[in-house]
Design brief:
This protein is an alpha/beta fold and 289 residues long. It has twelve helices and six strands. A six-stranded mixed β-sheet has the order 4-3-5-2-1-6, with helices on both faces. It is globular and about 60 Å long.
Length: 289
């Protein structure tokens, strides 16, 4: 009897593991259709890369068609909000008056200041109290060596042309609060490391773009997990917790109107990714190829 019970438990464990694996997307696709019995029209999910050189930027006909069929566009944040810049200014600084100079050595600070003055066209004076991750934006422009385009801003423009509302899956305050959960010193060291290893950082970004152009969301997820310039042990805070938090919000939006969701492509793959989590809630999520 004991052997039979153990055998049954073993089979159940295998079944649960296989069921979990089945939810993980294996197809190469950036655009996915979301549907469910009783849902009149499908919604869509698109994986973006936040900054990309114009030569690598593609807006496919299937993507434009999916936007046209939708009633609203949902980005990670509402980038159409006129108060966004004001909110950013209020939430970008470190808590308790912490300053960048206290997080790194004097020589590292001078190095950063020279880099931002020479390569970005601005010193660190205005960003002295900003959360170090805020410095990533201008730094990526230098790493890319081009004037990048943004899928998010392009989608905002498409929404305007169609008189379509743009909404956010999370408030800007929520996103900025994430960077209070990651030690400021750890963030600052990452910035210094990225500047010191620019050729390596550029190579990694080129690999990311190549995977993105192949629509390989599994590869993008794996690269994000091992990146030296990304999550660095903060996967739960930066990725998994947010994915989980988004699911009920996605469900609510879908129940109200067909929605075109666009989030960073790294959020799509893996067993804790948005696609697997939606499938776990009974949604059919299929690639649009």
């Amino acid at each position: 009897m004991k052997i039979r019970v153990l055998g049954f438990l073993g089979l159940m464990f295998c079944f649960l593991v296989e069921a979990g694996v089945a939810q993980v997307p294996s197809e190469n696709a950036l655009l996915w259709e979301i549907s469910k019995p009783g849902q009149a029209k499908p919604s869509y999910l698109f994986g973006t890369i936040h900054l990309i050189c114009p030569a690598d930027f593609v807006l496919s006909d299937s993507l434009k068609s999916a936007v046209t069929k939708s009633g609203q566009i949902a980005l990670e944040m509402d980038m159409d909000d006129p108060g966004m810049m004001m909110t950013m200014m209020k939430s970008m600084n470190m808590k308790d008056g912490v300053e960048l100079k206290s997080l790194i050595t004097e020589s590292e600070y001078n190095q950063l200041n020279r880099f931002y003055t020479d390569s970005v066209g601005m010193g660190l004076a205005l960003l002295e109290k900003a959360k170090p991750f805020v410095l990533m934006g201008p730094l990526f422009h230098a790493v890319l060596a081009c004037q990048p385009q943004s899928y998010e801003m392009t989608l905002v423009e498409l929404a305007k042309k169609q008189n379509m509302e743009v909404v956010g899956l999370e408030a800007l305050e929520e996103q900025m609060a994430i960077f209070d959960s990651i030690p400021y010193k750890e963030q600052a060291k990452m910035i210094v490391s990225m500047i010191n290893d620019r050729p390596k950082a550029r190579k990694e970004f080129e690999e990311m773009v190549a995977l993105y152009k192949r629509q390989n969301i599994r590869g993008l997820y794996d690269l994000t997990m091992k990146s030296e310039y990304g999550l660095e042990g903060n996967e739960e805070i930066m990725l998994f917790d947010r994915n989980k938090k988004w699911i009920p919000r996605i469900q609510k939006m879908i129940s109200e109107k067909p929605t075109f969701f666009a989030v960073g492509a790294a959020h799509l793959g893996g067993e804790k990714g948005v696609i697997a989590l939606l499938r776990g809630q009974g949604f059919k999520v299929r690639p649009v190829l």
